[in-house]
Specification:
Distance between the termini: 28 Å
Shape: globular
Strand content: 35-45%
Helix content: under 10%
Strand order of the largest sheet: 4-5-6-7
Low-confidence stretches: none
Number of strands: 18
Mean pLDDT: 86
Radius of gyration: 16 Å
Order of helices and strands: EEEEEEEEEEEEEEEEEE
Structural class: mainly beta
Largest sheet: 4 strands, antiparallel
């Protein structure tokens, strides 16, 4: 959190856990309430206001009190939410392994589909830039960009890759990391 200097970490497991450090990582405390099952939390995002979002198998959750209480949004999907991103206008996006991209205009209280023109595919990663464009990385369907908060999408390339991460540098370059193994030639790409 750039406002408070706190650090947050997510451990990915069947139960999932989220930790907070207030001493630059010397010690960590779980902020998931005892007995909670976050069922495979997959990603973590902290907003400038200090709201913490996590997503996983069938949920997107938010806390505004450092994990004392967690509030689910009204987004329901029986698959995995794979990433969360926020643009500078405060619009929050979540992507999923089979249902595309969802958008929240009210800090995660309600969600709506934002996948018009995006193929029904695994969307594995999201990023935003300073112009509030949203980038969505997919598996085998390329990198996509929306300049209108997910109302329409344009393919940017990398159609023969499994995208695992995408980020936008302050200079505007878009970087995409792809899956690599014996059968897939991947790497790091820049637009």
């Amino acid at each position: 959190n750039r406002t408070t200097g706190e650090l947050y970490a997510l451990t990915y497991s069947d139960e999932g856990d989220i930790y907070r450090s207030t001493d630059n990582g010397d010690s960590w405390v779980s902020i998931v309430p005892e007995g909670s099952d976050f069922n495979g939390s997959y990603c973590l995002m902290v907003t400038p206001a200090g709201h913490i979002f996590t997503s996983g198998w069938g949920f997107v959750m938010r806390t505004s009190d450092n994990g004392v209480t967690w509030n689910p949004g009204n987004v329901y999907y029986r698959g995995h939410f794979t990433d969360i991103a926020r643009n500078s206008a405060g619009i929050i996006f979540a992507c999923s392994d089979e249902a595309g991209v969802f958008r929240s205009d009210d800090n995660g209280n309600t969600w709506m589909p934002a996948s018009n023109q995006l193929p029904l595919t695994t969307v594995s990663c999201l990023a935003t830039n300073s112009q509030n464009h949203i980038y969505a990385g997919t598996e085998w369907n390329g990198l996509w960009r929306s300049m209108d908060n997910g109302d329409t999408w344009d393919r940017m390339g990398l159609t023969s890759h499994i995208l695992h991460c995408v980020t936008v540098a302050p200079n505007g370059y878009v970087y995409a990391g792809t899956y690599t193994d014996w059968w897939h030639e991947g790497g790091l790409f820049r637009s």
